[in-house]
Give the backbone structure.
Amino acid sequence: MLPASLVARLRAVVGADGIVDRPEALLVYECDGYTLERAAPEVVVLPRTPAEVSAVLRVLAADHVSFVPRGAGTGLSGGTLPIGAPVMIGTSRLGRIETIDVRNHRIVAQAGVVNQWVTNAVRAHGLCYAPDPSSQPACSIGGNIAENSGGPHTLKYGVTTNHVLGVELALPSGELVTLGGAVEDRPGYDLVGLVVGAEGTFGIVTRATLRLVRVPAAHRTLLAVFDSVDAASEAVSGIIAAGIVPAALEMMDRLIVQAVEAAFKVGLPTDAGAVLLIEIDGPAAGLDAHAARATAVCRTAGVREIRVARDEAERAALWKCRKRAFGAVGRLAPNYCTQDGVVPRTRVPEIVRHIAAVAARHRLRIANVFHAGDGNIHPILLFDERDRDEVARVRAAGREILETCVALGGSLTGEHGIGVEKVAEMPLLFGPDDLVAMTRLRAVFDPEGRANPHKIFPDAKVCVETRVPRRQAAV
Amino acid sequence: MTDWAALVGPTWVASGGAADAVDGVVPARVVRPGSLAEVQTVVRAVAEHRQALVASGRGAHLDMGAPPARLDVLLRLDRLTRVVDHQAADMTVTVEAGCPLAALGAALGSAGQWLSLDPPRPEETTVGGLVAANLSGPLRASQGGVRDLLIGLRVVNADGAVVAGGGRVVKNVAGYDLPKLHVGALGSVGVIVEATFKVRPRPPVEEAVVVACGTAREAAETALVLRDSDAAPLWLQVAGAGGLPEGPGEGAAAVVGLGGIAEEVADARACVERVGASLGLRTLFVTDGAALRARLGAFAVEPAAAVLRAATLPSEVGSVMERLAATARERQTVVRCLADAATGVVRAALTEVLAVGPLVKTVRPDLERHGGTLVVERAVPDAKVGVDVWGDPGPGLRLMRSLKAAFDPGGIFSPGRYVGSL
């Protein structure tokens, strides 16, 4: 139990409305989008400014208390699970967009600013913030930075780290340090690049300078229907081999197509083996030529049908299928859990076949919706929380899929992070020397190991309440 | 004393000479390991004897940074030249540190791909040097820099252990992004032995258009209009007076590279011409865009007493170029400037050794006050005397010192060359 005097000091910093400590109110904070494990913090602190974040951390530093940062709670790897950390620091009240520099394509946003707000704020100037995870109406910039979030458009535009020029970081000591900034090429180590994706283990990012990009002048959005995942995968490889870099190349398998169709009634063929969403963007001039080549590749791969969005409304409808696919999965089973492995793009057919085999062996249903162009798979393992045995099989199947991703030359996670979920699998990917180097790096920022402890690295895991979920991820 | 010949074979050890000097500091030995295991052995031997090493490829960029405080071994990696794995359909390549970019480019080119980084001297620039010195060229405007294309790295650390970060897939957030630690670190925290990059399809057509302008300021403004136009520049440079190796007249120019399939490039060219006409500026079409790009990229390494690299916001490029020119005039000397309009990086070449220090001291404080930086990117050793090569690395310096101490506690990797005398 935290001493009452400590909570009083925190209350003095953030005000009474910035402290959550009633047990029923804390229930909201006991998990994020990863619902297989839960742990409630003793207190949630909601600072309003970067200075308050600093002051809160100074209070904690004085007593050597560990803490967990939390953005919008949409993370999918349990990165905000308070294990061995009694205090959670939420950034939701750090919601200001501070400056917009249209001429230089820069914006400065506080950590709690929602991803979608950034683009909304600059859209009128023909600009946008490129990283667009499916949770973009809810997820925060601070959370995106912690996880180095991706999204469907990373194939062409890159992930969060490619768009963050500077951060203000509140170190666990409470010191606020500005790293990088609006000007590129600052001499010295790329500390910004190290902070992005550190999953909140270096401290708390309080504000960030982001790079904006021009909204593409035009799009061609195609929906290609195939009889099998293999045929669709062949088309993906063919498109890449043809020298086309689509803005997005997304695949949905039969289970997902059926769920999406049941939910949104957009006229998708429910007997299709796989559907490929292909988007090509840029100046209008070459788009038809690129689209024609992509279409030709799909025909060679045996495409059954190709639909082309004729206007923005049709384009939005096609994207709605993809971005809300996870929501539609709720129709298939009471619960689900999503994996985030990566394989080299050419190994997509193999991993998809492996997933089918794993599903059969463990008597599970697994749906697939993924970033095919990046080789970033998202198998969705369906289950019913009331079936304890099925929950255990879901865990075993998830691990087998990740093992195979690594064996195929891939990675444990493409955009969701290690969090608590994949801690045990880290040694599959990294040897002892690699992990030692990472822990050395962590100690530079957080010598006492108080920022988001027990994440990323395998260690003697502290007792955490593991139980079946009661509700679903909101992604 | 270390018996280097026993470690790497007598053929691959030599006494250091003037040609091996790093900023005038001559190493006692030049050692050229032939395998990863030999690199580890050499690093362990250096560490054991509390010596210092500078890792090098073909030595093309050793004039960057401050002179080393100590130097016993020049560790040349030019025997590690394999393209380990090029998966064209995955658009990735894994390559050993000593492989020259020209050779890598040839291997990728056969698949219609390129590593879209174009630093000068590709025959003499190795992959390890590319990463360690964070080199780039005009393509950075649209393709990003090393940090954006590097997806995996293998490094020999101060214990002699091989540490891997990242991987071979294009999207990967497992563990910390260790490769970023080594980008631009000038080998101060480890010896890079292998790197994996994202590669891209090379545009089949590349052209360029020179837009002639009266002043650098006008050229910089024009460049920003082009940046935001449907020309979608592949690269975008601003040349001050005399900054362009060839072009219309002696004045400044905005130079835009256009790439893609034929119809895209034709459309982009028409777009640039429309922009030029609307601003009342003359445009000159260049068929071989790649050749012009290479000549512009070579600006950073052409013979000069020093090349300064100022970084500013894209909107300030014109005024920074004018300020550099005006300051030089006050000192009765001349600078030639070339800038990347998209990234805000301005390079200024000086011919007079004695002008370097005063120019840096005059221009740097104002730049730093406005969030910019000024680095002496390259210089002859005499021009670095009494000059702070790096300037203020900013409030992150304390963390950088801790980083260096954590990854190179014995100070064996390039001591003194990096920011803050690290």
